[in-house]
Amino acid sequence: MNYTTVEVRVRYVETDQMSFVHHSNYLKYFELARLEWLNFLGISYSQLEESGVLMPVVRASAEYIKPLFFDESFKITVSLIDPPKATLKFQYVVVNSKNITVCKGETVLAFLSKKTMRPTRCPKILNEKFS
Amino acid sequence: MNYTTVEVRVRYVETDQMSFVHHSNYLKYFELARLEWLNFLGISYSQLEESGVLMPVVRASAEYIKPLFFDESFKITVSLIDPPKATLKFQYVVVNSKNITVCKGETVLAFLSKKTMRPTRCPKILNEKFS
Amino acid sequence: MNYTTVEVRVRYVETDQMSFVHHSNYLKYFELARLEWLNFLGISYSQLEESGVLMPVVRASAEYIKPLFFDESFKITVSLIDPPKATLKFQYVVVNSKNITVCKGETVLAFLSKKTMRPTRCPKILNEKFS
Amino acid sequence: MNYTTVEVRVRYVETDQMSFVHHSNYLKYFELARLEWLNFLGISYSQLEESGVLMPVVRASAEYIKPLFFDESFKITVSLIDPPKATLKFQYVVVNSKNITVCKGETVLAFLSKKTMRPTRCPKILNEKFS
After folding, report:
1. Left, alpha or beta for C42 (phi > 0: left; psi -120 to 50: alpha)?
2. What is the share, in percent, of chain B residues with pLDDT greater than 70?
3. A5 touching B (Cβ < 8 Å)
4. What's the rounded Cα separation, in Å, for the pair A107 and A89?
5. What is the domain partition of chain D in residue ranges?
6. Which of A40, B103, C78, C88 has the smallest number of CB atoms closer than 10 Å to its CB?
7. How many CB atoms are located within 10 Å of the residue C99 CB?
8. Which of A15, B102, A70, B12 shows the shortest CA–CA distance to C46?
9. Which residues of A touch B16 (CB under 8 A)?
């Protein structure tokens, strides 16, 4: 139960004056990885939202091991921890082009009804794919 | 017909490896200025959106005269050019704490019906304030 | 050993199509809070960097309790956990204008020599202020 | 004298509560396109910076014709207008996956000496490639 993204390249705007990729961007890389994975599994997150289910991040953490620099390419491996329940827990490993791990992280996502803005069940389509 | 924002301070994340504020951020500063102005006039952009009117930017331009650096404070003066018609045209001047103009710009906003996603009229409340 | 920021207002660009503030922005809010605190203590992070010390984030986590929405104002309280050693550990609490906690988080920062890009000691000026 | 990028996909974080890609992101897409082009031509912008030449954007404009939505893929075609002089002028056309033009834009870049922070000449390597 894991997936590795295509190569992603650091954008200039993602650097800060330290010349490192700003640490907030890794949360965007994690997101990109899990949504690319859903696509790969034939699940469109857009359709999930249209069907009335939002999946906000309720917990996130990251360990920054080495910096990424402008123009470096990297890949993210995302894994689902446990089958889906009230939440989905993903782990991430970001490796640079020399195959060195630069960042590890974890996010927990909840299911929210768009109408009521209250917790709801994991959509069937996700359950089927991830169980 | 113009308004000057309270002091804003450059955030670390807004810098890039050149140590300048990344040029894309000025569009965010312009946005912040015009929405602060609407607030000041007693118009809530949130309520406009809830009432079914979106105001997307359809044209934007900026001239970058001097860089802004981390931790600098600056103000944005925003002016409405012409009374509202099918679009709203704003001009912006960003000055740093030494009162030096660092950036000038312009944006044109349209009115879009949230339902039909087609152009719609300028909401009354805006017309009244800006005419 | 803690500090509460001035009021900050959610920027339009910080929302995503869920209408919530995107979760990555809270790391920017945390950063803003700790740098505002340093300023308040008379420490310029710019000067720290110029003196050759970088302070990258090496660990970050956040718990998202309630969403923040466009135009909401909020405050961040930042606390230093333990006196400075090889790293600095900060905790954050973000409360909205109704005084409800919307997010809690933690970051760990390291000290890096700009020249050697290797760990270095906590600068004296920080040690003095935080001990 | 033009180049078309590989396919880029809209990231979730790039949307705003209007569900459109926020207009500031197009400046990042333009940047991505011109730096990918330099790479393609065998010019590393990182090396240019290391050799002491910064290339800040001094003017930018964009016309937003149609919105881009989350998960859409798009390509950017970038063209150099005129051979390099004191500045470099690029034009951009962003087309979505249905080959519809969603945005057009232009940026002007200057050459700045990293040491003196004053205008400098176009680096030879760029001159040779673009003349």
Report:
1. left
2. 100
3. no
4. 6
5. 2-120
6. A40
7. 7
8. B12
9. 12-13, 15-17
Rounded CA gap, B10 and B16, in Å?
12
Read off the DSSP letter of residue B29.
H
Which of D43, D37, D59, D48 shows the shortest CA–CA distance to D120? D48
Pairing mode, strands B53-54 and A112-113: unpaired
Contacts of B36 (CB under 8 A, 6+ apart): B3, B5, B6, C9
Is the pLDDT confidence value at D131 over 80? no
Size of chain D, expressed as the number of residues it contains: 131
3-state secondary structure of B30: helix
Show pLDDT as tens, one digit a residue, over chain C (131 residues).
Answer: 899 999 999 999 999 999 999 999 999 999 999 999 999 999 999 989 999 999 999 999 999 999 999 999 999 999 999 888 999 999 999 999 999 999 999 999 999 999 999 999 999 989 888 87
What is d(CA C20, CA A118) in angstroms, rounded to the nearest whole number? Answer: 14
Q: Kindly provide the ipTM of the predicted complex, given to two decimals.
A: 0.96
Please pick, among B1, B2, B7, B16, the residue that the annotation labels catalytic: B16
Query: How many contacts, defined by CB atoms under 8 Å, are there between A and B?
Result: 26
User: DSSP characters for B36-62?
Assistant: HHHHHTT--HHHHHHTTEE--EEEEEE
Label residue A97 by pLDDT band (50, 70, 90).
very high
Q: Are A45 and A112 in contact (CB under 8 A)?
A: no
Burial grade of D85 (CB within 10 A; 0-12, 13-18, 19 or more): exposed
Homologous superfamily assigned to D2-120: Hotdog Thioesterase (3.10.129.10)
Q: Which two tokens stand for residue C91?
A: 């905790």
Right CATH number for B2-130 from 3.10.129.10, 3.40.50.720, 3.40.50.970, 3.50.50.60? 3.10.129.10
Residue A98 pLDDT > 80, yes or no? yes
| Tokens 């309520």, residue located | B47
C38 touches B at CB < 8 Å: no
Please name the residues in contact with D39: beta carbons below 8 A apart, sequence gap of 6 or more.
Answer: A71, D45
**C75 at the D interface (CB within 8 A)?**
no
Any idea which residues of D carry the catalytic annotation? 16
